[in-house]
Amino acid sequence: EFIAVVEIKSETLCELRKNRFPMKMRPIGLDTFLPDDLRLGGIGVMEIMDGVQRKIDTLTNQFTFGTVQANNPFGFFTPTGNMRDEPIKTKSGYLYPTSDPKSINMVTIPPPDASLQVAINNALQESQLIFGLSSFAAGVESRIDPDAPAKKVQFIVAQGNVRLNTIIKRKNSTLKDIFKKWFLLYQANMPPNKFMRIVGEDKKTPWQFEPINATDFALKSLPDFELTGNVLNTNKQLEVNKALAIYQVLITNPFFAPQTSQGLQALHALTKWLIDKFDEIGISSFLPSVPGEQVQTPEEENARFMQGDTGEPTENEPHPQHIKVHRPLLDDQTIPEDVKKEVLRHIQAHI
Question: Which of 37, 69, 109, 267 has its CA 20 to 30 A from that of 135?
Fold first, then answer.
């Protein structure tokens, strides 16, 4: 038996090696989520879905056949001349010869009952309930949830069908299988003092898990494949370099000049974009809030107050006129109290 190492994207055969694993073991890790004590492995997805798929196929075929019969009914007609006593194929269905003088009579076939559609929907919901991506938070109205695998574990444990320690044992068994195959794959290159060590196997202290690190798999020679870098980190560095180049070009553009309010807003957005390219843990949240547009009239200030913004008067403003325009906001019963407090503070600053 041989093991073929293939680069899938280019369909290139990289290596064809003889399988030296004991008992023809394959270097494939199988993680079965549903345990079964009477079987060597857990029940697979295809095996569980086989019955549900047969149910869906049967109901769908019945629905399709009933719809075709309803849309293409058969009928009877009065034969003339020397016509043979056999059905005549028409566009919609068949016409059968008859001696009925009432000429053609098309049979009305009722379409599939609504209960058949309900049965099909129940089968589809059953398949989603078993291996779908629903969050189960809203029943039939639920939508796709990326956290479904973790939530599935919670729901299965909550139902009492499988205990959590059973799931943990199943995961540990899968990890042991992966580590064992990893060791066997590079056994020829490992130093003599290295041995396979399975965490959690000590019966005296079963809950003492010693961590596994790279030194446990230290090699005395180069393996068949050597990781020289992280492709994700390389792509990240390229993105950062491109972002820096774009920033250096735009920072000299007059549209990003901080002397104007529009330029200051654009510079703020550009800075936040650059920081987000460097890091994704939210450092850009430490930036000060984006400055608002320059307010010229007291009416504009009132509009900003109604939006929850704040403002400070300037030295060259006509303060009496501004106070006169701001004061009606204090007498309006429909203005929220927090807005009135800000308007009052602004008027006191004018005084």
Answer: 37
> In this structure, are residues 107 and 74 in contact, taking their beta carbons and an 8 Å threshold?
yes
Domain carrying residue 265: 231-286
170 within domain boundaries: yes
pTM (global) more than 0.85? no
For residues 59 and 53, what is the distance between their CA atoms, to the nearest angstrom? Answer: 10
Q: What is the distance between the alpha carbons of residues 343 and 310, in angstroms, rounded to a whole number?
A: 9
- Residues 328, 302: contact at Cβ < 8 Å? no
In angstroms, the first-to-last Cα distance of the chain is 93
The reply to whether 204 and 240 lie within a common domain is: no
Contacts of 277 (CB under 8 A, 6+ apart): 239, 240, 243
Q: Say how many CA atoms lie within 13 Å of 216 toward its Cβ.
A: 13
The total number of structural domains that make up the chain = 3
Distance, in Å, from the CA atom of 3 to the CA atom of 195, rounded to the nearest integer, reads 24
| DSSP 8-state secondary structure symbol assigned to residue 94 | E
Q: Please provide the DSSP assignment of 98-111 as one string.
A: ---TT--EEPP-PP
Q: What's the pLDDT tens digit per position in 202-256?
A: 667 666 666 666 666 555 554 444 444 444 455 566 777 888 888 888 888 888 8
Whole-angstrom distance, CA of residue 264 vs CA of residue 284: 16
Residue 152 burial (CB count, 10 A): 19
In sequence order, which residues have a C-beta less than 8 Å from that of residue 117 and are 6 or more positions away?
63
